[in-house]
Amino acid sequence: MSETTKYIFVTGGVTSSLGKGIISASLAKLLQARGYSVTIQKLDPYINIDPGTLNPYEHGECYVTNDGAETDLDLGHYERFLNVPTSQANNVTTGRIYSSVIEKERRGEFLGKTVQIIPHITDEIKRRIKILGQSGEYDIVITEIGGTVGDIESLPYVEAVRQMLWEKREDCLVIHLTLVPFLSAAGELKTKPTQHSVKSMLELGVQPDILVCRTEHHLDDSIRRKIALFCNVMPTSVIESLDVSTIYEVPLLMQNEKLDVEVLKKLNLPDNGEPELLEWKDFLKRLKEPKAKITIALVGKYVELKDSYKSISEAFYHAGAANECKVELKWIHSAKINEDNLEEKLGDVDGILVAPGFGSRGIDGKIEAVKYARENGIPFFGICLGMQVAVIEFARNVLGWHDAHTTEIEQQCTHPVIDLMEEQKSIKNLGGTMRLGAYDCELKKGSKVHDAYGEDMIEERHRHRYEFNNAYMQDFEYNGMIATGKNPKTGLVEVVEIPEHPWFVGAQFHPEYKSTVERPHPLFIGFVKAVIKQKQKLEMKSKVS
Ligand code: GLN
What atom of ligand 1 comes closest to residue 384's alpha carbon? Predict the structure, then answer.
């Protein structure tokens, strides 16, 4: 642990979607592999207090931390790369910044002063940046500024960065991510957008130290020198970021480009030898050279925007690599499934996952998908709403309660097998009011989940309002659906299983949030393993007959 924390700011220019989150996570990984303790923070320039109330179509998945913060999906990348949990402090939005300043103003803490963007909003931004540094836990804090330089919304953030540089130049570093496009008509890479983007930074008083240039073609020495000269950085500070087939290659790409060496040099931190990243390379090898292939249906209602299920699809990469198997996801819109097209939609898949979600759209298709999996012995994994629909399907088709439902959708049904949690009943606001964050769960010995985790007590993250209605527990268990995971304090059902089925597991929590490259999630590993086994069994059977 160094005496002073170093701050690295990552900004983006030219266009959005250049991959600031992945570059930040990759740099953090390289620094962590050298023995530095690193954390990454995302500052989001929108006015929502957090992404919890955002439709996934707007912003992709809402990622939940152990301490129950609803955050930007980039925090998922940070955890998956670093294998270290993040928290509320790692994601701050403009809405949160303004709301704390306004609350302070209402309390009279500004003593009659006019409250302004500079210094009050920028001070609050700096305070939020420094909170992580002052915790004493980190040598390096990487702060990713969301949005693109030049946006009105980003201005206070870039100004806060300028002030941080003015206060502690030797402890701060700015990395600017830009695009170097290839114009096929001219047959050339073009540096002008990068020059303009750096110029926009300069107008705001910030000179980037390092440029990471996203490109589809190799940057030769003359282009690097040109960018360096016009953007006022050292030639070694022009880093090429070529497109790659998987995000997990980016740390190695950045290592080849010596981004970590350049960062350490500029921050006056000792370069304590090239990290080997053996575990990481081993994972990549397994990912790229699978020995088998399976297809899993991902049934959900936000499938048009794959970022809506980011942590689930990443967890399948981790679990696939752990099983040396390529997991192909077949994305199926739940609203397009009905009892007449089940064979067409699901007939060719080896496993079925029903995704989390809210509201009634597509729920019938989800119930049909569960029925198909249950009746045909297809390995099934239901997450959150996916678990709840598995309970509803069982109640309707096995227990014969045809009107069974969740009160989220049918408040007056006679068999509310999924019902609002007691503590949720008096809550009116939507933002930040669910059961959020990590809770303990006790697993039943001999169950599939217990086999998967190999532990009696686990801790998983939640994000829901409704739960299994314990009044019906006996009916379910007597007829073959067992609660194999329960909260030890409240008795809330966290996992249900059908032991007679090859692999049928529904989890009220979200295991996908905790899967990382170095710690692939046991439930995803178990599910993929079960799918492979079942597929092999079916292949053997068809060979014999
Ligand atoms: N809508 C359900 C609930 O609130 C499930 C939530 C989810 O899938 N994350 O309980």
Answer: 8
Distance of CA 449 to the CA centre of its chain: 23
DSSP annotation string for 374-420: HHHT--EEEETHHHHHHHHHHHHHTS--TT-EETTT-TT-S-EEEEE
User: 144-177 pLDDT, tens per residue?
Assistant: 999 999 999 999 999 999 999 999 999 999 999 9
Residue 506: strand pairing partners: 382, 496
| 448 touches ligand 1 (CB under 6 Å) | no
Strand segments, DSSP code E, in 429-510 are 435-443, 457-464, 466-468, 482-486, 493-497, 504-507
CA–centroid distance, 323 to ligand 1, in Å, is: 30
The backbone region for 257, taken as left when phi is positive above 0, alpha when psi lies in -120 to 50, beta otherwise, is alpha
State the pTM of this model.
0.94
Distances (CA, A) of 30 to 25, 137, 144, 380: 9, 18, 16, 37
Q: Is the CB of 465 under 6 A from ligand 1?
A: yes
Mutate to test the pocket of ligand 1, among 299, 358, 381, 409 (most ligand atoms within 8 A of CB): 358
175 φ/ψ angles, rounded to the nearest 5 degrees: -110, 125
**Model pLDDT for residues 83-111, shown as the tens digit of each residue:** 999 999 999 999 999 999 999 999 999 99
* Cα 10 from Cα 23, distance rounded (Å): 9
Ligand 1 neighbourhood includes 358 CB (under 6 angstroms): yes
